[in-house]
Amino acid sequence: MKFSRALVFLVLAVALRAEPEYPKQGPDIYDTKIDGGAQVEEALSQARLTHRRVLLDLGANWCIWCRRLHQVFESDPLVKPLLEANFVLVMIDVNQRDGKNRNAGLVRFYDNPVEEGLPVLLVLDADGKKLVTQETGALEAGKDGHDPKKVADFLTKWAPKRQP
């Protein structure tokens, strides 16, 4: 009986899962349906409660550099703990598709940082004040990806100052 319930749950979960926006790129890393403003508000609430800052990652699912940076965030042993301890990460889809600019209002609100290319990072304090916009080319390590040391240095520089 438990096996059949688990099987039904698994089948339903797979059926409800949306196809990736760009299947050849793999699973989506940016949610194509969620409102970026709502994501930021939720992240700011978490940041205030946990004494962290908010790191906005503006990108698109087709963007290989967005995926490479996401991989560094998710798995690098130097970067991941710094990110988790000091920031609430918000992945915001800013793709332009079918004549629509996703989260265009949010992009305008933050002075159109996507002009620098994708991905682009913004650090906000827990009150929502933008502290810095970082084009991520400066964090790259040649043609293959982002340099974990450069990413870690950026995160360390913009981490909240802790009281001793």
How would you characterize this protein structure?
The longest helix is centred in the N-terminal third of the chain and has 15 residues, at 2-16. Helix 4 packs parallel to helix 6. It is built from six helices and six strands, in the order H-H-E-H-H-E-E-E-H-E-E-H. The relative contact order is 0.17. The protein has 164 residues and is of the alpha+beta class. It has one domain (22-158): Glutaredoxin, CATH 3.40.30. Strand 3 (96-97) and strand 4 form a beta hairpin. The protein is globular, with a radius of gyration of 17 Å. The strands form two sheets. The chain has a four-stranded mixed sheet with strand order 2-1-5-6.
Write down the secondary-structure element order: HHEHHEEEHEEH
Broad structural category: alpha+beta
**How many alpha or pi helices?**
6
Architecture, according to CATH? 3-Layer(aba) Sandwich
- Silhouette: globular
- Beginning-to-end CA distance, first to last residue: 55 Å
Poorly predicted spans: 6-16
- Under CATH, the topology can be stated as Glutaredoxin
Rg calculated over all Cα atoms = 17 Å
Largest sheet: 4 strands, mixed
Question: Secondary-structure map with pairings?
Answer:
Elements: H1 2-16, H2 36-50, E1 53-59, H3 64-75, H4 79-86, E2 87-93, E3 96-97, E4 100-101, H5 104-109, E5 120-124, E6 130-135, H6 148-158
Parallel strand pairs: 1-2
Antiparallel strand pairs: 1-5, 3-4, 5-6
